Amino acid sequence: MGETWGVLAAVLSSALGGTSIGATRFLVGAIDPLAIGSFRFGIGVLLLLPLALLQLGAWPPRRDWPGVAGLGLLFFAAFPILFNASLIFTTAARGALALSTLPLLTMVVGAALGSEPLTARKTTGVLITILGVAMALLTGLASAPPGAWRGDLLMAAAALCMALYSIWSKPFIRRSGPIPFTTLAMAAGGAFLIAASLVRGSFAPVADFGAPQWFGTIYLGAFGAALTFYLWAFALERTTPTRVAISVTVNPIAASLVGAAILGEPLRWNVAAGIVTVFAGIWIATTQPRAAQADAAAVAPDAR
Asked: What is the DSSP code string of the chain?
């Protein structure tokens, strides 16, 4: 049951991440990506910090601080910079498809590092979800600007950062819990982005913000950072990195639905087909055949 809650939390986290893409696209015309990241993770830390301080006994031990800070820089600084830079060179659809390779990268890297075994069922499920994303983004994949491969590689690098974070963060989360870990990691990445934004003068346009821009900014901090990445850490505490990572394929699906609802973007048949295929792949990758379940149940008493 714990793994089921982990998978559900990861799916919800990725769905919220998809809605955050819509909010980011709304804000990107008013303020640059560095400042957006600064507000997103800065507000996220402010919301998580009181909850983390209430769990003093679970705060990461000092020996873990360098590792947690390093993971924070990897996920909350390097990842958004690579993500935003990739979209300079490629389309949103191609970028989303490149990001959907995350579960494949996580599965391969995890097997190479010995964190989880590579199985045929998980591989099949991961490949089906990537196919589902490609179907959902079919119309957007038809055209690409010159040199789009650069953006595709940058997005693949961003996915690799996320894969390594998912694999390496698991022992830290077990020692401290998802809220303290996420707070400290997000604070490290957010501090870097805020410093870079101050150097570039990225906060200057904030003086012209109206209510819609502030609403989008607060939404990103509360739901796109605090809740999204708490759920991601919660999921990593309860299931394998690959089963968590496969949920990222829900992200472009949610972004498409938000784009249709808020930005008036068209929904076509391929989006519906992609949604069905993605969830079929997630089900295959995150469940076990009945025979395997029976074997696991038979071994469990002996293990105790």
From this structure: -HHHHHHHHHHHHHHHHHHHHHHHHHHTTTS-HHHHHHHHHHHHHHHHHHHHHTTGGGSPPGGGHHHHHHHHHIIIIIHHHHHHHHHHHS-HHHHHHHHTTHHHHHHHHHHHHTSS---HHHHHHHHHHHHHHHHHTGGGGS---TTHHHHHHHHHHHHHHHHHHHHHTHHHHHHH-HHHHHHHHHHHHHHHHHHHHHHHTTTGGGGG--HHHHHHHHHHHIIIIIIHHHHHHHHHHHS-HHHHHGGGGHHHHHHHHHHHHHS-----HHHHHHHHHHHHHHHHHH---HHHHHHHHHHHHHH-
